[in-house]
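COURSE: Structural Biology Practicum
ASSIGNMENT: Worksheet 4, Part C
STUDENT ID: 0417
INSTRUCTIONS: Below are two proteins. For each, the amino acid sequence is given first, followed by its structure token string. Answer the questions at the end about the second protein only.

PROTEIN I
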Amino acid sequence: MADLQQTVGEVIRHERRERRLTLKGLAERAIISVVYLGEIERGKKYPSPVVLERLAAALDMDVSDLLELIALELRGVRQPQVLRAIGFTQPARGGSSTSGRVINLLDVVAVA
């Protein structure tokens, strides 16, 4: 089972980064200290309900949405983030010994 304190911090950090906010920026918006926010994000401190409400508002979220993200993370069902990196991660189909989308696309071109 995931650690609640750690998970709360991870979700807040993830949401802060999604919005491209610095620790200082989010702390100022939530009216808390940068040190306290850092401790929350690292899983060293539990935020009070009032601080959770402030953090949610500072992230332009309802507190219920923030709590739902935390619950999803604890359940392990949070959807993976879509990466924008260039790469081919789709596995080969049909049990081929070669793998990767590039190989598959070349095979299709060669057959046609």
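PROTEIN II
(use this one for the questions)
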Amino acid sequence: MTTSRLGLPWYVHPAEDPAAWAALAARRPRPSFAVVNVHDGPGAAGDEWYPEALAQLRTVRLLGYVDVDYGRRSPDDVQADVQAWLTRYKVGGVMFDQFPTDAASIERCSTYVNAARRSGALFVVGNPGTVPHLGHLAMLDVACVFEGTAESYADYRPPPGLSRVPRGRVWHLVHSCPPDELAAVSARTARLGAGHAFVTDRGMPHPWGGFPIAESQVGDLQGSAS
């Protein structure tokens, strides 16, 4: 049976939840990638907690979070964030959030992506949160083509053109999922063509703050019983 690999938006600070970071380091099978985020990007200065925390994840492909504000940020500002991630935190790539979707933005997005690759980003992900123009998909290693609630995901159907994109380049993010539906919705991501996915019962305003709450509660119960 085809399944989606775990692609994590990992927006949890290691000082706030060291147990979550330990769980990520021990996760098997390993996630295909994890997007780390100091402060809506790399932050203005080095974070003392991150180097040690990231060192524990040597076997996970780590990507630094960079917001491009739907193409409104200047290439120089975006590249400064990319360079900070690569040099300060030694990650292997970046994830461009709020990635635009229309054909008119292809040139601007290409500037972002090409500059990142020239700087040494080995893996570049974009998150438009919906299906963008195919030109955007062609320049990225992976694109998040759905980000939303489990309720809205129930009605999601990939557009026909997306069938031409290899599933390994497609990512789905689903939040606010009822705990008893996590497994079923996770299975659905694969059926809908996602090579990477993350489904969580956490909701807004901070759905990407760790693994699903239900999952951690099961771990707590198992620990109490042992």
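ANSWER KEY EXCERPT:
Q1: The longest helix spans residues 75-88.
Q2: The longest strand covers residues 142-149.
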